[in-house]
Amino acid sequence: MSEKQYKDESEMLYQGRVVKGMDFGKPEAMPLFTTAAFTMNSMTEVKNAYANGFTYVRTSNPNREALAQVVSFLEGGEKSLIFSSGMGAISTTLMTLVGPGDHIICNSNIYGETFDVMGKLLRKFGVETELVNFDDMDNVKNAVKPNTKVIYSEVCANPTLNMCDIPAAAKIAHDNGALLMIDNTFTTPIAIKPIQLGADVVINSLTKFMNGHSDSLGGSITSTAEIIDAIHPVRMLTGTPGDPNASYNMFKNFETMYLRVSREQASAAKLAKALEDHPHVSKVNHPSLVSFPQHELATKLFRSNEEMSGMMSFIVPEQEDRFDDFLSRLHFAHYAMTLGTMRTTLVHPCTSSHSHMPDADRRKMGITPGMFRLSTGIETLTI
Predict the structure, then answer these.
(1) Cis bond leading into 241, ω under 30°?
(2) Could you write out the DSSP letters of every residue in 243-298?
(3) pLDDT at 9
(4) Cα torsion for 199, 203, 208, 211, to the nearest 10°?
(5) Buried-exposed string 249-288: b where 16+ CB fall within 10 A, e elsewhere
(6) 3-state DSSP assignment of residue 204
(7) Which of 63, 64, 75, 61 is nearest to 6 (CA)?
(8) How much is the pLDDT for 4?
């Protein structure tokens, strides 16, 4: 979508004349369409609605379509789809792109439930997933097989922040007829646009930084029109389209995204340095730090240290009997099973997102019982 197209469509959205030619007047705020279906008075209307309108909420909805247009602009893609959750976006897309006998190369540093989709769900359908350490792109190149269809990674891994060299991964994928799928949740299009770096498919858990208020659940996939049009019917059949109420809420929250996310990312860089200097913290994972093993790559992919990610993880001594005392002494930060909200939150990966993994496997990824994942909020820092 060109800048002019976005300006024109943004004006349509702002004035209320929303997608697909439906004119709703000029409301100051985006209307909420709670209806489960749209009515027609003739077969001509029915045909027009199926071709370029709205019929049934699982098929299409104005709030979902409006949100998708904004995501497409932010990610710089041709087209987007909105899902019920980030995991709905991931699983539905992979079910579309691969089939029995196909091979996926997945970053071994990956979100726990994405790990389960690759290793458990897709395996039932005859799809082979190979977990590879993306810290060295030669590992990825050497893992390619004739049946490799997708190379998958997060921009910054959950929770270790290990990065993917997106341009290098894109070249490997395209040289071998595969697609590169990138999860941008930890970084958001405010910090990086993977499609501009060569990615074919970008996923976001909109629940997190992009929505930013911990009050709605949703996910998105952005890609070419051809790929999105192939995913759409699978999304309908699996029942994973986004809820109109969540889409409506996210559309409002997106208006403050740049302000929120920019502050969170800048604060994260400052907090990461402060934690690194703390005597009881043995390691901090954040790409802004010179000590971060992939800091040089980070400086190539991001514009500055203050525009990377609002996420980090840090490691303290494995004295779990003292964790309650530590958490009880926090004043602003609190434990919450989410991230990207306006308040700083922590989780313990070994107890939550990666609890199902054997300890030895977690440690290979750098996840120890002393690790906490931290999501920086918009609080004023006094560091």
Answers:
(1) no
(2) PHHHHHHHHHHGGGHHHHHHHHHHHHHHHHHHHHT-TT--EEE-TTSTTSTTHHHH
(3) 46
(4) 100
(5) bbbebbeebeebbbbbbbbbbebbbebbeeeebebbbbbb
(6) strand
(7) 75
(8) 57
238-284 tens-digit pLDDT: 999 999 999 999 999 999 999 999 999 999 999 999 999 999 999 99
Nearest by Cα to 166 from 309, 302, 306, 340 = 302
Residue 344 · residue 377 · CB < 8 Å: yes
* Cα separations in angstroms, 210 against 86, 251, 262, 268: 12, 10, 11, 16
| Model confidence pTM above 0.85 | yes
What does the alpha-carbon distance between residue 60 and residue 242 come to, in Å, rounded to a whole number? Answer: 10
* pLDDT tens for each residue of 42-51: 999 999 888 8
Which amino acid does the sequence have at 195?
I
Interatomic CA distance for residues 284 and 162, integer angstroms: 12
> What residue ranges define each of the domains in the chain, with the CATH number in brackets?
61-255 (3.40.640.10), 257-375 (3.90.1150.10)
CA atoms within 13 A on the CB side of 155: 31
